[in-house]
User: Fold these one by one.
Assistant:
Number 1:
Amino acid sequence: MSTNPPVPTASTTSVAEHEELANKVAQKAPQPDPAQPVAGANEGKDVDQVVDPQRAAQDTSERNGSSKQGWQLLCGPMLKYTRLNDDGSRWHGSVLIVLRAPPESGRRKPDEPSCSLNGKDSRTKVVHLFTERDRIYWRFDLEVALGDDEREVWYSIVLPGQQHDKIERSFWVPKVSQSFRIMFFSCNGFVPGAEKQVNGLALWNDVLRLHAKSPLHVMIGGGDQVYSDGVCEPHAPLCPWAEELSPLKRSKIPFPLELRDKVDDWFFQHYCDWFNVSPFREANAQIPQLNIWDDHDIVDGFGTYRDAWQRAPVFMGVGEIAWKYMSLFQQHLPPSTTINGLIYDPASFNPVIAPAQRPTPSTAQEAAPTSRAGKSEEVEKQKGLTEGGEEVELDPSYVRHPQEGPYIKHRGLSICTSLGEGILFYGLDCRTDRTRHRICYADTYQAMFDRLENDLVPGKTKHLLLLLGVPIAYPRLVWAETLMTSKVMAPLRLLNKTFGICSSLFNDFDGKVELLDDLEDHWAAAVHKAERNHLVQRLQTLSYAKQVRITILSGDVHLAAVGRFFSKAKFNVPQEKDHRYIVNVISSAITNAPPPEAIGDVLNTRNKLHRMDHYTDENLMDIFEESVNGSARRFNKTCYTTRNYCVITRSDPSAGPEATTAEELGEHYAKQEANQGEQPKTSLFGKMMRKDKRDGSPPRSGVEKGEISGGTGTIAKNVKGAQVEHDASALAPATGTKVADALNISLRLEVDMKSPEGKTKAYGFSIPRLER
């Protein structure tokens, strides 16, 4: 079945009008400074100089020596982790660099850089990933033998003709049969104007301090690794297009080659600028990444607007370009098509895949579920396409979606890989398939469960970390959705469309209320409720069948919280034996400015004991008993609006100290009792907000909160951790449990968002393994 949009008829007059408008937009669009060297250019630069679209493409050639003849480093090095081999004895990953070719290189085959690793039985392979104009992307595939001790691996890169000028960095690998120390983050960028509210990328300084004390083996990016919203801002290529007040006219403007090239240059420069800014640049070179993308990697709300708008030529063109640079910079993969791989039909105002450049792969051959790494030759050679239709091999850690996305004409890429002993990771690409009424195709879910059915080993795999970009256990805001779609907003929408009044209330794309795309993006939105509940039920069934504890990681919402599903109190199931107990760790944002504290308070008032189905309840955990400054939090203990990130370790001697002194835990370590008489502390405003009967009632006891224990002391309850100066806080603080295989979670919240140090306070809890 074809996924290409239908081609509507259009009169010759209307086509000519829109082509004329498109040409005006393309001519007015500013041209970013093409491919200037940026390596080192952002060191010491204020963050607003990096995110300002006008300054993002400034000429930095003199500072970086572009006047010299030779190869120039534009971006990198950037590490990526891919997988362990079947027996867990070898680590596989890659490092990416982007170079500018010297003028005299012409059209000859590019000279190869080289990369070497220290240590016995380590291997490297250079891969010419992609070339566009004078930009050349090189990937070095890395393979490291694991030993009896975790160790620091040094790598050295030599550019062509520069043998005496090496780039030397290091990363850490675990020992054999050790679980990874994991860092999780999301929302690593700024919406326009947010950079003024905080001190740049300060939390990455905290990550590097933590890494220096207790090295991290991987950092998981939960989406929005870059913020590309600035492509519509002043001095950016799509500013003239965004200034057209009528969403209808804007949706019909074609995407001519001239404008497309300017947008492509903007994305390239933006990626180089952002991945070169300190201290994120240093983290990229030392800690291997594992990324899944989300809307801001494309543009705010992509996939959640009306279908007619999503199929607008400019919008689909931006999606294609965003896919290209996500593939290159975040996945170290060649893009499936170049920027010129689309043909734009002015009669339909929709992009059409160019058959000669984009042959459709055999659905029967590629849609088969992927098996565990190394199990079959087919897994080792999943097929992708370069810009010329050339086949490339995908690493077996990838799970390619069976269908192309509706608005991004590529098959989504999810990731399934081991994170050491007892931990399997699955990152579900929830953006490529997304529409306003669907998050993922049914066969995308089936591909995920087929892969998990094969890779989860009962008795060996203790924990499954499932990455979903947007929280799934999160308070409902049905009243806000109803208000924003009601007729009350119609007069304001008309004023905005006609005169540009109340422009901050409506988005720049389809003219809807600005926050509506965020609400409809949520799993808890009314339109996604059935899909959400079905997914959770399938996960619970998988947990029971494979005897594995499932934990969900999410970002997106710019606050820290912990949601959870669990069996109803009437079933009296201890937490460690409850296969329905699924925790949703919500950590966002590591860089973007947080929302006002009142937003967290409103969400807290919506924290009901909600009935998901006959067997399952859900709510948010009371984890934030005190503020980052040490004062008691009497009202809102569930949602903390400050910048943050998360550290995850497994309770195991090989993962580090078992924890936990009273000093490290703080005074309020994990409670072991059921807290039967505990009543939630709620303000008068909160009590008024709780009267929505559809959302249930407040939990009346610890049992109903999901905090019942069978005596092993693994209750998922608040622990106030220590400041980062304490050695043990470099690990995820535990809850005092000595139970093997518990997953220790540490939410690390910024103490002062104006400080360049980025110091954090840790809030921790444990998630028990699933027992029979």
Note: The radius of gyration is 25 Å.
Number 2:
Amino acid sequence: LLFSKIPLFQFPDSLLDLSCPVCQDIFKDPVVLSCSHSFCKHCLQSWWRGKPVQECPVCKRRSSRSDPDQRASAGSESLCSLHSEKLKLFCLDHQQPVCLICRDSKTHNNHRFRPIHEFAQDHREEIQKSLKPLQEKLKLFEQVKGNCDQTAEHIKVQVRHTERQIKEQFKKFHQFLQEEEEARITALREEEELKSQMMKEKIEALSREIAALSHTIRDTEEELRGDDVSFLLTTRLQ
């Protein structure tokens, strides 16, 4: 499944036996016919749909099964579907495992064969080789992600540090403003007290002048209301 999204042309030729002859992609839910050719289950069902005869899309051999066998799971012993013999060889021409009887049959006449374990080992090595650039790419991505994680954490630390600095600066600024406010209000109160005292003294002086003038005016008015002799005597004395 690791290679299911990689185009087939990027694989070595020997990896093509992992691909479905119908869709030319890596097997999905593979099934095997009695002729030993394998296909995706969905591809085979689509190929057979509407056809009067169920035959192999590759060799055109008629299939006697309406429900093909699922491929044997990894680790289980695989037997030839035609001869029930162990699959000991791999046909390079048909790109499929075969038994010793298949090798000598007309179907595989003049074909090239290799021991299946030997071919499987080479096959594994080629897959391993194909994995190497992917593993290197994964390592690079993980390294880049690690750098991004470190950068993200550094950004968080830097933001928290800057936030503390801003709060400390504004705290000092607020304290300065509060002290400045108190100092100015104190100076204003002192100025008010000084000016109020000056005005109080001035008002008291004016009050004394007003009282003296009022007394003089009252005395003069009384003299004016007196008889002529008293008025003349009083004014002459002044």
Note: The beta strands are 30-32, 38-40, 69-70, 89-91, 96-98, 113-115.
Number 3:
Amino acid sequence: MKYAFFFRSRLGSGLVLGVSYIILATPVARDWLESTMTAHMLLQIPLLALIGGVACGLLPEHIRDRFLVRIGGAIPCVVVALFVSSYWMLPRALDAALTESLAELAKFISFPILVGVPLVLAWKHLSLIGRGFVLTNFFSMLAVLGWLYIVAPVRVCNSYLVNDQENAGWLMVLLAGFLFIGWLGSLFIDNGSRPYPENPNQ
């Protein structure tokens, strides 16, 4: 009974993820999420990566570990995820996704499979320094790119107006700052620490 419930819960979660992915791929959802740079970069793209990561997390742990060994360990996973996510942050890549069907298809495939899945596979095998490297790289990339969008005197992405570009830039910088502060604060919290006894002699 325990294993049957476990299987059904994972199957149900997988179906929800599949439906969510299909909804994101519909023309209505794509038109809405890609109508502004903010929604495109800070909503649609993270959701695609999240779907892949959650789907990978639903797999049994021994299958994830076996697959990780076959592809060479955690480092190749991190390298692939950083490379793919960095590429899609480029203005030219965003423009291509809006104007070319093959580029749009590549975006919908690469983020779940080449960003979300590798990060989940590698995460528990990374040391604190390794996780810090991944997170600080992401924060800095988000902040630098956001600042570029703010100060650029012309449209960096041909598909979006300058005002839309500036709004996205400010949100990216603010998001990078809040995420960095939150991560930095979490380093000072030890959830597994033993509480201090009320009586010092205990």
Note: The longest helix spans residues 162-186.
Number 4:
Amino acid sequence: MSLFKARDWWSTVLGEKEEFDQGCLCLADVDNSGNGQDKIIVGSFMGYLRIFNPHPVKTGDGAQAEDLLLEVQLRDPVLQVEVGKFVSGTEMLHLAVLHSRKLCVYSVSGTLGNVEHGNQYQLKLMYEHNLQRTACNMTYGSFGGVKGRDLICIQSVDGMLMVFEQESYAFGRFLPGSLLPGPLAYSSRTDSFITVSSCRQVESYKYQVLAFATDADKRQETEQQKLGSGKRLVVDWALNIGEQALDICIVSFNQSTSSVFVLGERNFFCLKENGQIRFMKKLDCSPSCFLPYCSVSEGTVNTLIGNHKNMLHVYQDVTLKWATQLPHVPVAVRVGCFHDLKGVIVTLSDDGRLQCSYLGTDPSLFQAPKVESRELNYDELDVELKELQRIIKVVKSQGVWPMHEKEDDLNVSAMVSSNFDSVSQAADVEVGTDVVPSITVKITLQNRIVLPKVKLSIYVQPPLVLTCDQFTFEFLDRNPDGTPRVIQCKFRLPLKLICLPGQPSKTANHKLTIDTNKSPVSLLSLFPGFANQSDDDQVNVMGFRFLGGSQVTLLASKTSQRYRIQSEQFEDLWLITNELILRLQKYFEKQGIKDFACSFSGTMPLQEYFELIDHHFELRINGEKLEELLSERAVQFRAIQRRLLTRFKDKTPAPLQHLDVLLDGTYKQVIALADAVEENQGNLFQSFTRLKSATHLVILLIGLWQKLSADQIAILEAAFLPLQEDTQELGWEETVDAAISHLLKTCLSKSSKEQALNLSSQLNIPKDTSRLKKHITLLCDRLAKGGRLCLSNDAAAPQTMVMPGGCTPIPESDLEERSVEQDSPELFTNHKHLATETPVPEVSALQGVSE
């Protein structure tokens, strides 16, 4: 039993699916029994009114049938219930019930029962007021210093205060500048109403000022009638608290002074009668309700504050005195007296959980039984210890989960269909004059044990698309230790998916030559289906055409061990070059030749690569400028709309002054800019696809040039291709620049001083691409001088490597890109970039991931 948990004295649950708020709970001797015992009055938004008189047989009992004195279903939702002297000619207590469009005052009376069913209680309507405006909340008190009776003030949702002198309507006043209603309370010492406006200000209005102010019913009359109808309503005092208020309570535990308590969303305020702050307390949790209930010492006030963490805190001014746990989030809290038990805390939740509780703890009469002592058998303990040590040793040797079982738990395999689909599943069936094919990939998941929530994700690089890229299996496989596992499966797609046979071209702007250490292989055996097999004279040349029209030509030398790939567009070279190397490796593996190797001895085509980078960066800058311009035009469009709306709402319309023409022109500009942004995004996507193709080609050539291992090529790919998608917030240029700078200052650094430099932790779009191009050039230079790529900082000493004859070292003092002539003019031409807008298809392994 926790000391800090509220002790349940009596509790019940009200109805089913009913809702309640802070005004739905009230404690008072509503039946005028005269014994000083409170009754619990609860109203709900479903229109139910209930009155309880709890008397549990023992602590913690639930509600008994006789605890419910009265239950009545009213036709309208109950917004608030209050008990006071609301009927003229008597000082008996009556019940006031506030509905959205009605105020009803009832008399609750009990009849002594002569049988075992107990007393009978009745609810009698004394009078009612039909409201012309929708009510929000109400307060009551002896307005104007009247004796022996209470008046009621109702606040409507549009900020009007309606005062009722018991059975008659007195007057109504609009609060100045009211937008949304706030909590309302009445201070009898200052004879004023205190509320919190939508401006987050605590405002006080004198009752006398309200009574003599302009009548709300005359608010729409002419200006001349307004001047003679009353005084202007002014605020007595105001205090800005900077947040919305949840509730207001005014207490006075002595005759000399009173305090205004305001519960905000994050703070708790105590104000003096004149609006000055007495103290405030910043709350740690979001509050839900509060109640100042007593003063235990001179000048201090105790307050109950409930919060949304099911806690009820007891504060003495700003000092936390006690914290107790509740079984629900309270929306209303009261303190009452039941059966001579004073200080019972009554809480109500928004779903109807009503509880009477008290603080502290109950004495525990439980005593732990004595444990029977028994003698220990040390021989049996030794045997058991040896057995446990044997089991631990076996488990350590085999592992907690054997590797062969781990591998067999879940197996993912993929099988690509040998033929294209008879009916293409592509969204865009045609690209120009070409028909876009589709192919079916069958993915098989084999599991040994049952697992829930297994996700299969499939990714392809653009412009390839999938009909479905996410699959979820409710019950498939599960790792016994509960740790998540990821299994990957890579597979290749046929080249004909995006590439068709084409006519070879003798001339091209961009050419590459790949050297091998074996005799050239017939292109017919490497690329079956891409050439006319009856034409034996053309076995050393082959043409490829991408979907959309781009042409690539592949030539095999008859006299040397070289292959040339040429195209009008630089980025188109990667796919065919990569496919050629993979097929050559597969061909010689089937022949049993293991020493086959490819190399690249030409000049690294950085100039063409840099032009693609500049084009991509220019589109990013254009997109940023277009978005800024679109934002400005959107702000201008909304400003014109607001001005036009003000003109149209005015009772005396003024000339539009060509605002409608300006609105129409701004609208056309917004539409044009939105189209331009959308077009630029499409061009940026195509440019990023071409840039990734060119980046793959540069990485491939660097690997062949320096004979890099698979791990080193993986480091280059991680540095040059960190993003799958390019966005304005995080782009390719700044990400790659940071990654290459890290490599230059770690594994490719020349001295320890470079390793000590710290890189910027913030990635922002650069002003230009000169810094990135310098770093890429410097990376190639460091690799040419023997630098070695590795992930550890303490890289080994640079290894002496023989540079290819066609690669000229780049001086570090001159980091600008420059053109370099080729070594073999008969096989290479100087590359020149050709600007193109055709998207480059990019094919790589599909990757399926299951979790």
Note: The longest helix spans residues 659-706.
